[in-house]
């Protein structure tokens, strides 16, 4: 249990709760959920430019990272076709992957196919079920994809000023504006209470909020004196209680609740808002193909990690379909902006390709 680990090392409850947010981030779990300690490890085991556990902003926004990878690929002869939805994987008579068919009818032939879509989309939508072992299909269907995350992107006309560290008179950013700011995590009980409410189908009354202001470090993201604020919030269930849907009223009611919380820490925040974009779990699934809205393509629980990710006997990136490889967050070692699953899958695919 994460709580036990933190109790061994720390005394301050606000510090323990703040660290605990990285153990439940993106997970429908509480600090008291068995295995939550691994999720914390997952988020601090990496490094950035030689600094272990460090995080960084991407200049130009997260999309710039995708573009950097794309440029590196095209410089080496890759062809990238955006906005070309894949209809299904092409299979030969021997059951081997032979390419993909696009929704516009185009067929792209290839000796190997790598999918960084979720295991659910890859194996339950793009492959005929009769081509897969029944126990494998059942396992993919049973993957826990519950997500607690609602992402809110906000445009503001001035820098938030927090009661705990008010802005300077000149309004220039201070050190804490360059960091991840954690709200509603004064103690781990608050996080557990927020989780419990969501398990009953109700968005948390006092949501856990991770707030960052990337435009402080990257001024080109917003006009002068204005900023973009990224809010990573939880817990919000994919399915609301009593069969209610995430309609505009439910979305805005939750966002208002989040903004009221921020207002308590930074008076004047609500008045500074000039635009907001609210992405609930169903929105994240519809727009980005995240199963259940889960940013990791499936929970990072101990029964869905290592040799069991995405299914027992298929943690080595190969799939039951020869020539088809899984290289996204649903493969080992899971989600996160690190590229480990993709690199590992590429190594396996290259090894197989040399035998063809």
From TrEMBL:
InterPro entries: Amino_oxidase, FAD/NAD-bd_sf. One of its GO terms (molecular function) is oxidoreductase activity. Pfam families: Amino_oxidase. Probable oxidoreductase that may play a role as regulator of mitochondrial function. Belongs to the carotenoid/retinoid oxidoreductase family. It is found in: Mitochondrion matrix. Keywords: FAD, Flavoprotein. Gene3D superfamilies: FAD/NAD(P)-binding domain. The lineage of its organism: Eukaryota, Metazoa, Chordata, Craniata, Vertebrata. Residues 35-163 form the Amine oxidase domain. Its main location: mitochondrion. One of its GO terms (cellular component) is mitochondrial matrix. Interacts with COX5B; this interaction may contribute to localize PYROXD2 to the inner face of the inner mitochondrial membrane. It comes from the Eukaryota. This is Pyridine nucleotide-disulfide oxidoreductase domain-containing protein 2. Transmembrane segments: none annotated.
